Structure formats: structure tokens, C-alpha cells
Amino acid sequence: MKKYRVAVIPGDGIGKEVVPEGIRVLDAAGDRFGFSFDWHFFPWGCEYYHETGHMMPQDGIEILSKFDAIFLGAVGAPSVPDHISLWGLLIPIRRRFQQYVNLRPVKLLRGIESPLKNIKKGDIEFYIVRENNEGEYSNIGGRIYTGTDQEMAVQETVFTRKGVERIIRYAFELAKKLNKKRVTSATKSNGIIYTMTYWDEIFAEIASLYPDIEHDQYHIDNLTTLFIRNPQRFSVIVASNLFGDILSDLGPAITGSLGIAPSANLNPERKFPSMFEPVHGSAPDIAGKNIANPIGQILSGAMMLEHFGHIEAAKAIEQAVEIVISDKCIKTPDIGGNSSTVEVGTAISEMVKKQ
Ligand code: GGG
Fold it and tell me: What is the CATH number of the domain that holds 143?
């Protein structure tokens, strides 16, 4: 029986509550489909930072490199500045393991109501392909004349040909694989005249290699309004690091809750482990109350199974989620229920076993 060695980083806040539910469901899928997991837990995150001065140990990347995948909850706490927690844990993992694709599916599930009018299941189903290694998230820059009236801060955006080409190519390959008809690019080249025009140029070059797939592009401001007015039109959206981050919060919002959104940080070449985490953060306002929605974490686990090649098992988890929230009406408060995190996770794992 195949056994996967997975590094688990529950992280902070609700990460600690939703990760056990993800594991519960993945173990159930393993029992049913004939594989298992060797889970290794790492207590890294903001508490670890308070104890050691680091979000993870100095050899954290080396430790993680030995695993088949990383299953992460959430990162961030009010007691640690967000740029310290993000750049101390998530970003180094994404970059050192060349997880340059952040794949974030957006789907309206059966049993959840969209806040948009006249939208039903099937109307919203698209993929955001977020560039995950460069772009606006850069550590090139600095401050000068600190504390004087000339004080200034500069931050450079980095778009490399290699980085932009590979993410756009991934988006077109995904569209081809999933039989999706169109790839949409998020840009802002009217205002950001060097990096974004470069992005547009490369998008046009790669698009010309896929004549059977339609392509279009929108400035990010217009694109966000289209998410609200006409979300049905999207299939695959490719976006820079920052634009992808913003769109992938708005996407789940129009499908009912950020709590249900999964993501995969992929190293497509499989030279390094990939990392699976919900889109949501640590949500300190609801942490410790056993009301966080575990579905984003659970569906991130399904994406991990897909990555391992267990397509049927991944589908079984997706189906179990819809049956539990729709037919059984077992759901957390963010999507209109009154069940707890543990109740939802338990019901989904039972459903995976018995379907
Ligand atoms: N579960 C992911 C998480 O904790 N995200 C926190 C966050 O701020 N992420 C920013 C990003 O994805 O770049």
C-alpha cells in the first residue's frame, strides 16, 4: 500500500482547528481507496516566533524537502506583524521549492447560496492561476531618510521572462487539459507601463501558441466588477502575484464564503514538494471557537490527492462535501448553518467512507 510522507504545519489561529479535520477526511479517503499517510507535525508559526525569534527553524526548508508534500493551515497572529509571519514561513517555502503556481479553484458548491442575484450551482466554476514566486511580492527596495521630512520607501516589482512565461503557459495547458474554452489575463498596463505591458506582451506570445483556446485580458479594476456582474464568463484566469491574491479572495466571496476555498502551491516539475493550504488566513476573531469552516482545508487535501494521482479519491471528497452541506445541512455559521468545525469534518469523513 502506498504511504505518503506529509509535513503538517497547522500554523496559527483557525489553522490549528481546520487541519485536524483535513487529516481526518484524508485518512478516511486513504482507508477507502487503499493508500495511507505518515503525518509529521511541525509547530511552526507565530507562537514558535515568540519562543525562538523565527517562524520556522533555520533548517526548516531542508527538513521539508524530504517530504512528498506539505499540508498547511494558516499563518498570522495579531501579535506578529503580518510581513514578518508571511516572509518568515509561507513565502520562503513557496520560493525555495519553486512552487510558482498557486492554483485556486473558484466553485459555487451545491448547498451554498451565492450573495449574487440569480446565480445557481454550475454558474461559477473557474480557476485562478496566480503567479507565486515573483511580481509585486518582492524584497527589493528599501527606505531612505527615515524619520525626516524626505522619508521615502521604494519597492520593486519583478517580472522575469522565465517567471511570466511559465505561469501563462501553465494556465493555457490547464485550459487545454480541462477542455476550458478561454484564458483571461489580469493586467493593468494602462497605469503600470513597464511590468504590465511586458506581462501583456508575453501573454499574447503564449496565447498565439494555443489557437484553439480563446484569450482575452482585462484591467484588474474592470475584472473585479465582472466577477460581480458576469462571473459565468470565466474559465481560467492568469494573474500576477498581487492581482491573483486579490481575485482569489473575491472569487470565494461570490461563492458564499472564503472558508470553502482551497489552494495548491505547485512545483509542476515535481523537483520539490508542493504545498496545499486553504486560501483563508488564521482568522483570529473566530479562533478557538470551533466554528471555523474546515471545507477549504478539506478541499485543499483533495487537491493534494489529485497531485498524487488519486483522482477518484479527490472526487469522492468533493462529492462528500456537497452531500454533507446540501443534503444533510451540516454546515458552519459562515454558510448559514450552526454546526461546529469538528461536526462538519466528522460528517464529511463518514460520508467519504460510506459513499
Ligand atoms: N492559509 C493561507 C494563509 O494563512 N494565508 C495568509 C496570507 O496572508 N497569505 C497571503 C498570500 O497568500 O500571499
Answer: 3.40.718.10
